[in-house]
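Quick one: co-fold with flavin-adenine dinucleotide.
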Amino acid sequence: MTTRKFPQKAPLQEIDIVRRENHTEDLALMWLEKPDGYTFKPGQYCTIGHDGIERAYSIASAPHEEFIELFIELIPVEEGGVLTPILWDLGKGDKVTIRPRAKGIFTFKEEMENQFLVSTVTGVVPYVSFIRDYLRKNRSGHHFYVLEGASYTDEFVYDKEFETLSVLNPSLVTFVPTISRPNEDRNSTWSRDTGRVNNIVRDKLDQFNLTTADTMIYACGHPGMIEDVKEKVTGDGYEFLEERFWKDD
Ligand SMILES: Cc1cc2nc3c(=O)[nH]c(=O)nc-3n(C[C@H](O)[C@H](O)[C@H](O)COP(=O)(O)OP(=O)(O)OC[C@H]3O[C@@H](n4cnc5c(N)ncnc54)[C@H](O)[C@@H]3O)c2cc1C
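Sure, here it is.
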């Protein structure tokens, strides 16, 4: 009798949380140990777990970096959160699991000169990786327009990194943060764009003269935002790529 060989499933690996930075009550950055040989493309996600519960997280760091950097939003138990309330109690020295391979097709499409990157809060993560990798490789010829929507100014988290890049290299990065609740006290010092990010997309494409021939549009994060951006831009003939972090109810 012949024994049939099935491909062996690579085992889950336990890795350390090496650092954690809290930004608001429900937003944190976490840096994880990178397993030997772990590779990924900018824009891909890893699968992280604890107590057998696993979820997908896009990777903010670029492949050359020592650690895997994640930007995570807490979904409280009352709102259905399962893994994030567990992660919220973890910090430096605690362990999580990681699946052996990164996945996803929400990656840098270099064919178009203009990269129009639309996000809500944690949805900015893949773009952080795109741009860090691009800089690391010393590439040129593309312009990254990073549009990020949030309710409050302290939810941007990567704003200083994008602002600095846009000042040092204005032909490479344009950063457009916009807040949807300009009248709340928490946003009292805000003097930039206001409104939901999906509602400023059309104006910004016009303002920056971005045409269908030379622009790739990405949308990542809130499914409602993605749906609206998709409807607005694909009708006009723009190339469009999306990554939904959760499903609309
Ligand atoms: C490809 C991919 C990449 C992802 N990358 C990230 C990332 O970089 N950072 C991140 O924080 N999350 C990311 N997510 C979402 C993540 O996988 C989890 O769903 C999220 O962390 C909540 O986990 P949970 O177990 O606590 O709740 P879940 O059991 O996953 O979800 C509970 C409920 O909350 C909803 N939900 C999930 N996330 C949100 C949210 N952000 N806002 C509002 N409602 C939500 C779900 O639809 C569900 O109804 C990604 C998801 C996918 C598919």
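If it helps, The mean pLDDT is 96.
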